[in-house]
Protein backbone atom coordinates (compact mmCIF):
# COMPACT_ATOMS: atom_id res chain seq x y z
CA UNK A 1 0.00 0.00 0.00
CA UNK A 2 1.33 3.41 -0.98
CA UNK A 3 1.99 5.68 1.99
CA UNK A 4 -0.51 8.32 0.85
CA UNK A 5 -0.06 10.70 3.78
CA UNK A 6 3.69 10.77 3.26
CA UNK A 7 3.27 11.55 -0.46
CA UNK A 8 0.81 14.35 0.34
CA UNK A 9 3.26 15.88 2.83
CA UNK A 10 5.96 15.73 0.16
CA UNK A 11 3.75 17.53 -2.36
CA UNK A 12 3.08 20.32 0.14
CA UNK A 13 6.81 20.63 0.80
CA UNK A 14 7.76 20.84 -2.87
CA UNK A 15 5.00 23.34 -3.61
CA UNK A 16 6.19 25.64 -0.82
CA UNK A 17 9.43 26.72 -2.47
CA UNK A 18 9.19 25.63 -6.08
CA UNK A 19 10.17 29.09 -7.34
CA UNK A 20 13.38 29.01 -5.32
CA UNK A 21 14.31 25.37 -5.85
CA UNK A 22 13.71 25.28 -9.61
CA UNK A 23 11.93 21.93 -9.36
CA UNK A 24 8.20 21.25 -9.19
CA UNK A 25 5.67 18.45 -9.45
CA UNK A 26 2.20 18.16 -10.98
CA UNK A 27 -0.06 15.24 -10.18
CA UNK A 28 -2.58 13.66 -12.45
CA UNK A 29 -6.13 13.95 -11.15
CA UNK A 30 -6.80 11.41 -8.41
CA UNK A 31 -3.75 9.26 -9.01
CA UNK A 32 -0.91 9.71 -6.55
CA UNK A 33 1.25 7.05 -8.17
CA UNK A 34 1.91 8.97 -11.37
CA UNK A 35 3.29 12.49 -11.59
CA UNK A 36 5.22 14.86 -13.78
CA UNK A 37 8.23 16.63 -12.36
CA UNK A 38 9.87 19.65 -13.95
CA UNK A 39 13.48 20.69 -13.58
CA UNK A 40 14.95 24.01 -14.63
CA UNK A 41 18.21 23.58 -16.54
CA UNK A 42 21.07 24.75 -14.29
CA UNK A 43 22.86 28.03 -15.03
CA UNK A 44 26.23 27.81 -16.68
CA UNK A 45 25.44 24.48 -18.36
CA UNK A 46 24.28 23.65 -21.89
CA UNK A 47 20.88 22.93 -20.31
CA UNK A 48 20.43 26.52 -19.10
CA UNK A 49 17.09 28.03 -20.08
CA UNK A 50 15.52 24.64 -20.72
CA UNK A 51 12.62 23.15 -18.79
CA UNK A 52 12.93 19.39 -18.48
CA UNK A 53 9.95 17.18 -17.81
CA UNK A 54 10.41 13.98 -15.82
CA UNK A 55 7.87 11.16 -15.62
CA UNK A 56 7.56 9.93 -12.01
CA UNK A 57 5.97 6.64 -10.95
CA UNK A 58 5.67 5.63 -7.32
CA UNK A 59 5.88 1.92 -6.52
CA UNK A 60 3.45 0.70 -3.85
CA UNK A 61 6.32 0.26 -1.36
CA UNK A 62 7.35 3.93 -1.70
CA UNK A 63 9.20 5.41 0.23
CA UNK A 64 10.92 2.11 1.05
CA UNK A 65 11.47 1.66 -2.67
CA UNK A 66 12.76 4.44 -4.93
CA UNK A 67 10.48 6.41 -7.25
CA UNK A 68 10.85 5.49 -10.91
CA UNK A 69 12.00 8.53 -12.84
CA UNK A 70 12.59 9.01 -16.53
CA UNK A 71 13.13 12.11 -18.65
CA UNK A 72 10.26 12.84 -21.03
CA UNK A 73 12.08 15.80 -22.55
CA UNK A 74 14.93 14.66 -24.77
CA UNK A 75 18.31 15.39 -23.17
CA UNK A 76 21.87 15.02 -24.48
CA UNK A 77 23.74 13.90 -21.36
CA UNK A 78 26.10 10.98 -20.56
CA UNK A 79 23.92 9.67 -17.72
CA UNK A 80 20.58 9.96 -19.48
CA UNK A 81 19.54 7.80 -22.42
CA UNK A 82 19.22 9.99 -25.52
CA UNK A 83 16.66 7.50 -26.83
CA UNK A 84 14.25 6.90 -23.97
CA UNK A 85 15.23 9.27 -21.15
CA UNK A 86 16.27 6.46 -18.75
CA UNK A 87 18.48 7.78 -15.96
CA UNK A 88 21.62 6.35 -14.38
CA UNK A 89 21.74 7.68 -10.82
CA UNK A 90 22.61 5.72 -7.67
CA UNK A 91 19.91 7.27 -5.46
CA UNK A 92 17.25 5.96 -7.87
CA UNK A 93 18.63 2.45 -7.31
CA UNK A 94 20.38 0.87 -4.32
CA UNK A 95 21.34 4.18 -2.73
CA UNK A 96 17.74 5.26 -2.32
CA UNK A 97 16.58 5.86 1.25
CA UNK A 98 13.24 6.88 2.80
CA UNK A 99 15.28 9.79 4.17
CA UNK A 100 15.16 11.20 0.63
CA UNK A 101 12.10 12.76 -0.97
CA UNK A 102 10.75 13.43 -4.46
CA UNK A 103 12.10 16.95 -4.07
CA UNK A 104 15.60 15.82 -3.13
CA UNK A 105 15.50 13.29 -5.98
CA UNK A 106 14.58 16.00 -8.52
CA UNK A 107 17.29 18.27 -7.06
CA UNK A 108 19.75 15.40 -7.52
CA UNK A 109 18.70 15.16 -11.17
CA UNK A 110 19.30 18.89 -11.49
CA UNK A 111 22.75 18.40 -9.93
CA UNK A 112 23.38 15.54 -12.37
CA UNK A 113 22.72 17.95 -15.27
CA UNK A 114 25.44 20.22 -13.82
CA UNK A 115 27.97 17.45 -13.17
CA UNK A 116 27.80 14.56 -15.63
CA UNK A 117 29.58 11.35 -14.64
CA UNK A 118 30.80 9.99 -17.99
CA UNK A 119 32.65 7.11 -16.28
CA UNK A 120 29.33 5.63 -15.18
CA UNK A 121 27.27 6.30 -18.29
CA UNK A 122 23.71 5.50 -19.24
CA UNK A 123 24.29 6.46 -22.86
CA UNK A 124 27.64 5.18 -24.06
CA UNK A 125 27.65 7.27 -27.25
CA UNK A 126 27.05 10.53 -25.43
CA UNK A 127 29.63 9.61 -22.81
CA UNK A 128 32.27 8.87 -25.45
CA UNK A 129 31.58 12.17 -27.10
CA UNK A 130 31.79 13.97 -23.75
CA UNK A 131 35.20 12.42 -23.08
CA UNK A 132 36.71 12.65 -26.57
CA UNK A 133 35.17 15.71 -28.16
CA UNK A 134 33.91 17.99 -25.44
CA UNK A 135 33.25 20.93 -27.77
CA UNK A 136 30.92 18.89 -29.98
CA UNK A 137 29.23 17.49 -26.88
CA UNK A 138 28.54 21.00 -25.59
CA UNK A 139 27.17 22.06 -28.98
CA UNK A 140 24.87 19.08 -29.28
CA UNK A 141 23.64 19.35 -25.68
CA UNK A 142 22.85 23.04 -26.21
CA UNK A 143 21.14 22.30 -29.52
CA UNK A 144 18.97 19.62 -27.91
CA UNK A 145 18.06 22.00 -25.08
CA UNK A 146 17.14 24.63 -27.65
CA UNK A 147 15.18 22.13 -29.76
CA UNK A 148 13.37 20.11 -27.10
CA UNK A 149 13.45 21.84 -23.73
CA UNK A 150 12.38 25.36 -24.55
CA UNK A 151 8.92 26.71 -24.95
CA UNK A 152 8.22 27.15 -28.61
CA UNK A 153 10.99 24.69 -29.32
CA UNK A 154 9.62 24.40 -32.86
CA UNK A 155 11.48 27.63 -33.52
CA UNK A 156 14.60 25.66 -34.38
CA UNK A 157 12.92 24.23 -37.48
CA UNK A 158 11.87 27.66 -38.59
CA UNK A 159 15.40 28.96 -38.06
CA UNK A 160 16.69 26.14 -40.21
CA UNK A 161 14.18 26.90 -42.96
CA UNK A 162 15.20 30.56 -42.82
CA UNK A 163 18.89 29.75 -43.22
CA UNK A 164 18.12 27.39 -46.10
CA UNK A 165 16.09 30.15 -47.77
CA UNK A 166 19.16 32.34 -47.49
CA UNK A 167 20.91 29.86 -49.71
CA UNK A 168 22.82 27.61 -47.30
CA UNK A 169 22.50 23.85 -47.64
CA UNK A 170 20.35 22.20 -44.99
CA UNK A 171 23.24 20.14 -43.66
CA UNK A 172 25.67 23.01 -43.18
CA UNK A 173 22.89 25.16 -41.70
CA UNK A 174 22.01 22.46 -39.19
CA UNK A 175 25.65 21.98 -38.18
CA UNK A 176 26.07 25.73 -37.74
CA UNK A 177 22.92 25.94 -35.61
CA UNK A 178 24.07 22.98 -33.50
CA UNK A 179 27.49 24.49 -32.94
CA UNK A 180 25.94 27.75 -31.86
CA UNK A 181 23.49 26.14 -29.51
CA UNK A 182 20.55 27.10 -31.72
CA UNK A 183 21.41 30.78 -31.81
CA UNK A 184 20.27 31.84 -35.29
CA UNK A 185 22.34 35.03 -35.56
CA UNK A 186 25.53 33.39 -34.35
CA UNK A 187 24.95 30.55 -36.82
CA UNK A 188 24.49 33.04 -39.67
CA UNK A 189 27.69 34.82 -38.72
CA UNK A 190 29.51 31.53 -38.70
CA UNK A 191 28.09 30.52 -42.08
CA UNK A 192 29.03 33.86 -43.66
CA UNK A 193 32.42 34.00 -41.98
CA UNK A 194 33.26 30.41 -42.87
CA UNK B 1 34.34 3.64 -34.75
CA UNK B 2 34.42 7.38 -34.75
CA UNK B 3 31.72 8.18 -32.26
CA UNK B 4 31.51 11.84 -33.13
CA UNK B 5 30.09 10.87 -36.52
CA UNK B 6 27.48 8.82 -34.86
CA UNK B 7 25.59 11.49 -33.00
CA UNK B 8 22.49 11.07 -35.09
CA UNK B 9 22.19 7.45 -33.97
CA UNK B 10 22.63 7.80 -30.26
CA UNK B 11 22.24 5.15 -27.60
CA UNK B 12 21.30 1.99 -29.41
CA UNK B 13 22.38 -1.36 -28.08
CA UNK B 14 25.00 0.25 -25.90
CA UNK B 15 22.32 1.64 -23.60
CA UNK B 16 22.41 0.23 -20.10
CA UNK B 17 19.43 -1.49 -18.55
CA UNK B 18 17.00 1.01 -17.12
CA UNK B 19 17.17 1.89 -13.42
CA UNK B 20 13.89 0.17 -12.63
CA UNK B 21 15.09 -3.00 -14.34
CA UNK B 22 18.23 -3.03 -12.21
CA UNK B 23 16.15 -2.32 -9.13
CA UNK B 24 13.72 -5.13 -9.95
CA UNK B 25 16.61 -7.56 -10.40
CA UNK B 26 18.08 -6.45 -7.08
CA UNK B 27 14.70 -6.95 -5.39
CA UNK B 28 14.32 -10.45 -6.85
CA UNK B 29 17.66 -11.54 -5.37
CA UNK B 30 16.70 -10.13 -1.98
CA UNK B 31 13.22 -11.72 -2.15
CA UNK B 32 14.72 -15.14 -2.87
CA UNK B 33 16.82 -14.78 0.29
CA UNK B 34 13.89 -13.51 2.29
CA UNK B 35 11.93 -16.73 1.83
CA UNK B 36 14.57 -18.68 3.68
CA UNK B 37 14.33 -17.05 7.12
CA UNK B 38 12.00 -14.93 9.23
CA UNK B 39 13.15 -11.37 9.95
CA UNK B 40 13.88 -12.68 13.45
CA UNK B 41 13.89 -16.41 14.01
CA UNK B 42 12.95 -18.60 16.98
CA UNK B 43 15.15 -18.87 20.04
CA UNK B 44 17.39 -21.89 19.51
CA UNK B 45 19.98 -23.60 21.72
CA UNK B 46 23.55 -22.63 20.91
CA UNK B 47 24.25 -26.24 19.98
CA UNK B 48 22.61 -25.59 16.60
CA UNK B 49 25.79 -23.73 15.69
CA UNK B 50 27.93 -26.77 16.51
CA UNK B 51 25.88 -28.65 13.97
CA UNK B 52 26.50 -25.87 11.46
CA UNK B 53 30.28 -25.85 11.95
CA UNK B 54 30.72 -29.61 12.41
CA UNK B 55 32.63 -29.94 9.17
CA UNK B 56 34.11 -26.48 9.46
CA UNK B 57 37.04 -24.77 11.05
CA UNK B 58 38.40 -26.13 14.37
CA UNK B 59 38.90 -22.53 15.52
CA UNK B 60 35.14 -21.94 15.27
CA UNK B 61 34.37 -25.14 17.18
CA UNK B 62 36.86 -24.29 19.94
CA UNK B 63 35.34 -20.84 20.22
CA UNK B 64 31.83 -22.24 20.34
CA UNK B 65 32.82 -24.38 23.33
CA UNK B 66 34.00 -21.28 25.16
CA UNK B 67 30.89 -19.39 24.10
CA UNK B 68 28.68 -22.11 25.57
CA UNK B 69 30.11 -21.47 29.02
CA UNK B 70 28.48 -18.04 29.13
CA UNK B 71 25.75 -18.12 26.52
CA UNK B 72 22.95 -20.60 26.05
CA UNK B 73 20.85 -19.62 23.09
CA UNK B 74 20.75 -17.73 19.84
CA UNK B 75 18.00 -16.05 17.84
CA UNK B 76 18.84 -15.47 14.23
CA UNK B 77 18.11 -12.36 12.21
CA UNK B 78 17.63 -12.39 8.47
CA UNK B 79 20.82 -11.60 6.58
CA UNK B 80 19.52 -8.76 4.46
CA UNK B 81 21.91 -6.05 5.56
CA UNK B 82 19.54 -4.85 8.30
CA UNK B 83 20.42 -7.64 10.75
CA UNK B 84 22.18 -5.40 13.28
CA UNK B 85 19.17 -3.09 13.55
CA UNK B 86 16.61 -5.90 13.62
CA UNK B 87 18.64 -7.78 16.26
CA UNK B 88 19.01 -4.63 18.35
CA UNK B 89 15.28 -3.92 18.10
CA UNK B 90 14.18 -7.36 19.20
CA UNK B 91 16.84 -7.88 21.86
CA UNK B 92 16.15 -4.50 23.48
CA UNK B 93 12.35 -4.81 23.45
CA UNK B 94 12.37 -8.43 24.58
CA UNK B 95 14.60 -7.60 27.54
CA UNK B 96 12.30 -4.72 28.54
CA UNK B 97 9.30 -7.00 28.29
CA UNK B 98 10.93 -9.62 30.50
CA UNK B 99 12.10 -7.26 33.25
CA UNK B 100 9.19 -4.74 32.96
CA UNK B 101 11.44 -1.70 33.39
CA UNK B 102 9.11 1.31 33.23
CA UNK B 103 11.87 3.73 34.18
CA UNK B 104 13.86 2.60 31.12
CA UNK B 105 10.83 3.20 28.88
CA UNK B 106 10.59 6.75 30.22
CA UNK B 107 14.34 7.29 29.78
CA UNK B 108 14.15 5.99 26.20
CA UNK B 109 11.29 8.37 25.40
CA UNK B 110 13.49 11.28 26.48
CA UNK B 111 16.39 9.98 24.40
CA UNK B 112 14.06 9.73 21.36
CA UNK B 113 12.99 13.37 21.84
CA UNK B 114 16.64 14.44 21.75
CA UNK B 115 17.25 12.36 18.60
CA UNK B 116 14.24 14.03 16.98
CA UNK B 117 15.60 17.47 17.82
CA UNK B 118 19.03 16.50 16.42
CA UNK B 119 17.48 15.45 13.11
CA UNK B 120 15.40 18.63 12.83
CA UNK B 121 18.46 20.76 13.68
CA UNK B 122 20.33 18.95 10.89
CA UNK B 123 17.61 20.01 8.44
CA UNK B 124 15.90 16.64 8.05
CA UNK B 125 12.22 17.17 7.17
CA UNK B 126 10.19 15.85 10.12
CA UNK B 127 7.65 14.10 7.90
CA UNK B 128 10.36 11.78 6.59
CA UNK B 129 10.86 10.14 10.00
CA UNK B 130 7.88 10.97 12.26
CA UNK B 131 5.88 7.85 11.31
CA UNK B 132 8.83 5.52 11.96
CA UNK B 133 9.48 7.21 15.29
CA UNK B 134 5.83 6.73 16.27
CA UNK B 135 5.94 3.04 15.37
CA UNK B 136 9.01 2.46 17.53
CA UNK B 137 7.38 4.32 20.46
CA UNK B 138 4.28 2.14 20.00
CA UNK B 139 6.40 -1.02 20.33
CA UNK B 140 8.18 0.49 23.33
CA UNK B 141 4.91 1.19 25.17
CA UNK B 142 3.57 -2.24 24.27
CA UNK B 143 6.17 -4.16 26.24
CA UNK B 144 4.94 -2.78 29.60
CA UNK B 145 2.16 -5.10 30.75
CA UNK B 146 -1.20 -4.37 32.27
CA UNK B 147 -2.47 -1.94 29.64
CA UNK B 148 -4.86 -2.35 26.75
CA UNK B 149 -1.99 -1.85 24.32
CA UNK B 150 0.29 -4.40 26.03
CA UNK B 151 1.95 -7.05 23.92
CA UNK B 152 2.92 -10.56 24.97
CA UNK B 153 6.28 -12.02 23.97
CA UNK B 154 4.41 -13.89 21.26
CA UNK B 155 2.95 -10.67 19.89
CA UNK B 156 6.34 -8.98 20.08
CA UNK B 157 7.82 -11.76 17.95
CA UNK B 158 4.94 -11.34 15.50
CA UNK B 159 5.43 -7.55 15.30
CA UNK B 160 9.15 -7.92 14.78
CA UNK B 161 8.46 -10.40 11.97
CA UNK B 162 6.01 -8.04 10.31
CA UNK B 163 7.89 -6.56 7.37
CA UNK B 164 6.25 -3.15 7.68
CA UNK B 165 6.70 -2.71 11.44
CA UNK B 166 10.23 -4.07 11.36
CA UNK B 167 11.29 -1.96 8.36
CA UNK B 168 9.84 1.18 9.94
CA UNK B 169 11.79 0.62 13.15
CA UNK B 170 14.96 -0.23 11.20
CA UNK B 171 14.50 3.00 9.29
CA UNK B 172 13.98 4.95 12.51
CA UNK B 173 17.25 3.51 13.87
CA UNK B 174 18.98 4.43 10.61
CA UNK B 175 17.77 8.02 11.00
CA UNK B 176 18.96 8.10 14.63
CA UNK B 177 22.36 6.63 13.67
CA UNK B 178 22.82 9.09 10.81
CA UNK B 179 21.78 12.01 13.02
CA UNK B 180 24.21 11.06 15.77
CA UNK B 181 27.12 10.60 13.34
CA UNK B 182 26.48 13.99 11.73
CA UNK B 183 25.90 15.74 15.07
CA UNK B 184 29.29 14.52 16.31
CA UNK B 185 31.02 14.53 12.93
CA UNK B 186 34.39 15.54 14.41
CA UNK B 187 34.37 12.46 16.63
CA UNK B 188 33.27 10.07 13.88
CA UNK B 189 35.33 11.50 11.01
CA UNK B 190 38.58 9.60 11.77
CA UNK B 191 36.68 6.27 12.00
CA UNK B 192 34.94 6.92 8.71
CA UNK B 193 38.12 8.07 6.99
CA UNK B 194 39.78 4.87 8.15
CA UNK B 195 37.11 2.78 6.42
CA UNK B 196 36.42 4.74 3.28
CA UNK B 197 37.27 7.89 1.41
CA UNK B 198 33.92 9.39 2.15
CA UNK B 199 33.01 12.54 4.00
CA UNK B 200 30.81 12.14 7.07
CA UNK B 201 27.73 13.34 5.19
CA UNK B 202 28.47 11.09 2.21
CA UNK B 203 28.98 8.13 4.52
CA UNK B 204 25.58 8.71 6.13
CA UNK B 205 23.87 9.08 2.74
CA UNK B 206 25.52 5.96 1.29
CA UNK B 207 26.20 3.59 4.18
CA UNK B 208 23.67 4.44 6.89
CA UNK B 209 20.43 5.80 5.46
CA UNK B 210 19.68 3.31 2.64
CA UNK B 211 17.91 0.14 3.81
CA UNK B 212 20.07 -2.96 3.51
CA UNK B 213 23.41 -1.22 4.06
CA UNK B 214 25.38 -3.30 6.54
CA UNK B 215 26.40 -1.97 9.93
CA UNK B 216 29.89 -1.56 11.30
CA UNK B 217 31.43 -0.28 14.54
CA UNK B 218 30.55 3.27 13.57
CA UNK B 219 26.84 2.44 13.33
CA UNK B 220 26.85 0.56 16.64
CA UNK B 221 28.66 3.32 18.53
CA UNK B 222 26.31 5.96 17.12
CA UNK B 223 23.06 4.10 17.84
CA UNK B 224 24.19 2.96 21.29
CA UNK B 225 25.26 6.51 22.22
CA UNK B 226 22.19 8.23 20.78
CA UNK B 227 19.68 5.92 22.47
CA UNK B 228 21.77 5.38 25.61
CA UNK B 229 21.66 1.58 25.30
CA UNK B 230 24.80 -0.47 26.01
CA UNK B 231 25.48 -3.21 23.46
CA UNK B 232 27.77 -6.23 23.69
CA UNK B 233 29.11 -7.80 20.51
CA UNK B 234 30.66 -11.25 20.76
CA UNK B 235 32.85 -12.16 17.82
CA UNK B 236 32.82 -15.65 16.36
CA UNK B 237 35.48 -15.44 13.67
CA UNK B 238 38.70 -17.08 12.49
CA UNK B 239 41.02 -14.89 14.57
CA UNK B 240 43.47 -16.72 16.86
CA UNK B 241 45.49 -19.80 16.06
CA UNK B 242 44.87 -23.19 17.66
CA UNK B 243 48.56 -24.00 17.81
CA UNK B 244 49.51 -20.74 19.35
CA UNK B 245 47.90 -19.61 22.58
CA UNK B 246 44.63 -21.00 23.88
CA UNK B 247 41.77 -19.73 21.75
CA UNK B 248 39.81 -16.83 23.22
CA UNK B 249 36.53 -15.34 22.13
CA UNK B 250 36.70 -11.61 21.58
CA UNK B 251 33.91 -9.41 22.77
CA UNK B 252 33.42 -5.69 22.79
CA UNK B 253 31.07 -3.71 24.99
CA UNK B 254 29.76 -0.52 23.45
CA UNK B 255 28.96 1.66 26.45
CA UNK B 256 27.15 4.96 25.80
CA UNK B 257 28.96 8.18 26.67
CA UNK B 258 28.70 9.08 30.32
CA UNK B 259 27.59 5.63 31.46
CA UNK B 260 29.57 3.54 33.94
CA UNK B 261 31.87 1.36 31.84
CA UNK B 262 31.41 -1.55 34.24
CA UNK B 263 27.78 -1.90 33.17
CA UNK B 264 26.75 -5.30 31.80
CA UNK B 265 24.91 -4.85 28.49
CA UNK B 266 21.54 -6.55 28.10
CA UNK B 267 21.57 -6.30 24.32
CA UNK B 268 24.02 -9.02 23.32
CA UNK B 269 24.76 -9.75 19.68
CA UNK B 270 26.75 -12.53 18.09
CA UNK B 271 28.86 -11.33 15.17
CA UNK B 272 29.99 -13.68 12.50
CA UNK B 273 31.76 -12.00 9.55
CA UNK B 274 29.11 -9.92 7.79
CA UNK B 275 26.24 -10.86 10.09
CA UNK B 276 24.65 -10.22 13.50
CA UNK B 277 22.31 -12.48 15.49
CA UNK B 278 20.93 -12.20 19.03
CA UNK B 279 22.73 -14.03 21.82
CA UNK B 280 21.27 -15.05 25.22
CA UNK B 281 23.13 -15.50 28.48
CA UNK B 282 22.93 -18.89 30.13
CA UNK B 283 20.07 -19.25 32.54
CA UNK B 284 18.13 -16.55 30.74
CA UNK B 285 14.41 -17.08 30.94
CA UNK B 286 12.36 -17.33 27.78
CA UNK B 287 11.32 -20.22 25.65
CA UNK B 288 13.79 -22.17 23.64
CA UNK B 289 12.20 -23.90 20.72
CA UNK B 290 13.31 -27.51 20.56
CA UNK B 291 14.34 -28.11 17.00
CA UNK B 292 15.24 -31.77 17.45
CA UNK B 293 15.45 -34.45 20.09
CA UNK B 294 19.24 -34.39 20.10
CA UNK B 295 19.08 -30.89 21.48
CA UNK B 296 17.07 -31.95 24.51
CA UNK B 297 19.85 -30.78 26.82
CA UNK B 298 18.36 -27.30 26.85
CA UNK B 299 17.37 -27.44 30.55
CA UNK B 300 20.58 -25.86 31.69
CA UNK B 301 20.20 -22.73 29.58
From TrEMBL, chain A:
<dbReference type="InterPro" id="IPR041974">
    <property type="entry name" value="UBC27_UBA"/>
</dbReference>
<dbReference type="InterPro" id="IPR000608">
    <property type="entry name" value="UBC"/>
</dbReference>
<keyword id="KW-0067">ATP-binding</keyword>
<dbReference type="GO" id="GO:0005524">
    <property type="term" value="F:ATP binding"/>
</dbReference>
<feature type="domain" description="UBC core">
    <location>
        <begin position="2"/>
        <end position="150"/>
    </location>
</feature>
<dbReference type="Pfam" id="PF00627">
    <property type="entry name" value="UBA"/>
</dbReference>
<keyword id="KW-0833">Ubl conjugation pathway</keyword>
<dbReference type="InterPro" id="IPR015940">
    <property type="entry name" value="UBA"/>
</dbReference>
<feature type="domain" description="UBA">
    <location>
        <begin position="155"/>
        <end position="194"/>
    </location>
</feature>
<protein>
    <recommendedName>
        <fullName>E2 ubiquitin-conjugating enzyme</fullName>
        <ecNumber>2.3.2.23</ecNumber>
    </recommendedName>
</protein>
<dbReference type="InterPro" id="IPR016135">
    <property type="entry name" value="UBQ-conjugating_enzyme/RWD"/>
</dbReference>
<dbReference type="GO" id="GO:0005634">
    <property type="term" value="C:nucleus"/>
</dbReference>
<keyword id="KW-0808">Transferase</keyword>
<dbReference type="InterPro" id="IPR023313">
    <property type="entry name" value="UBQ-conjugating_AS"/>
</dbReference>
<dbReference type="GO" id="GO:0000209">
    <property type="term" value="P:protein polyubiquitination"/>
</dbReference>
<dbReference type="InterPro" id="IPR009060">
    <property type="entry name" value="UBA-like_sf"/>
</dbReference>
<keyword id="KW-0547">Nucleotide-binding</keyword>
<dbReference type="Pfam" id="PF00179">
    <property type="entry name" value="UQ_con"/>
</dbReference>
<feature type="active site" description="Glycyl thioester intermediate">
    <location>
        <position position="88"/>
    </location>
</feature>
<comment type="similarity">
    <text>Belongs to the ubiquitin-conjugating enzyme family.</text>
</comment>
<dbReference type="GO" id="GO:0061631">
    <property type="term" value="F:ubiquitin conjugating enzyme activity"/>
</dbReference>
From TrEMBL, chain B:
<keyword id="KW-0645">Protease</keyword>
<feature type="domain" description="OTU">
    <location>
        <begin position="72"/>
        <end position="282"/>
    </location>
</feature>
<dbReference type="InterPro" id="IPR042468">
    <property type="entry name" value="Peptidase_C65_otubain_sub1"/>
</dbReference>
<feature type="site" description="Interacts with free ubiquitin">
    <location>
        <position position="271"/>
    </location>
</feature>
<keyword id="KW-0833">Ubl conjugation pathway</keyword>
<dbReference type="GO" id="GO:0004843">
    <property type="term" value="F:cysteine-type deubiquitinase activity"/>
</dbReference>
<feature type="site" description="Interacts with free ubiquitin">
    <location>
        <position position="276"/>
    </location>
</feature>
<feature type="active site">
    <location>
        <position position="275"/>
    </location>
</feature>
<protein>
    <recommendedName>
        <fullName>Ubiquitin thioesterase</fullName>
        <ecNumber>3.4.19.12</ecNumber>
    </recommendedName>
</protein>
<comment type="similarity">
    <text>Belongs to the peptidase C65 family.</text>
</comment>
<feature type="active site" description="Nucleophile">
    <location>
        <position position="83"/>
    </location>
</feature>
<feature type="site" description="Interacts with free ubiquitin">
    <location>
        <position position="221"/>
    </location>
</feature>
<keyword id="KW-0378">Hydrolase</keyword>
<dbReference type="GO" id="GO:0043130">
    <property type="term" value="F:ubiquitin binding"/>
</dbReference>
<dbReference type="InterPro" id="IPR016615">
    <property type="entry name" value="Otubain"/>
</dbReference>
<feature type="site" description="Interacts with free ubiquitin">
    <location>
        <position position="237"/>
    </location>
</feature>
<dbReference type="GO" id="GO:0016579">
    <property type="term" value="P:protein deubiquitination"/>
</dbReference>
<dbReference type="InterPro" id="IPR042467">
    <property type="entry name" value="Peptidase_C65_otubain_sub2"/>
</dbReference>
<feature type="active site">
    <location>
        <position position="80"/>
    </location>
</feature>
<feature type="site" description="Interacts with free ubiquitin">
    <location>
        <position position="235"/>
    </location>
</feature>
<dbReference type="InterPro" id="IPR019400">
    <property type="entry name" value="Peptidase_C65_otubain"/>
</dbReference>
<dbReference type="GO" id="GO:0006508">
    <property type="term" value="P:proteolysis"/>
</dbReference>
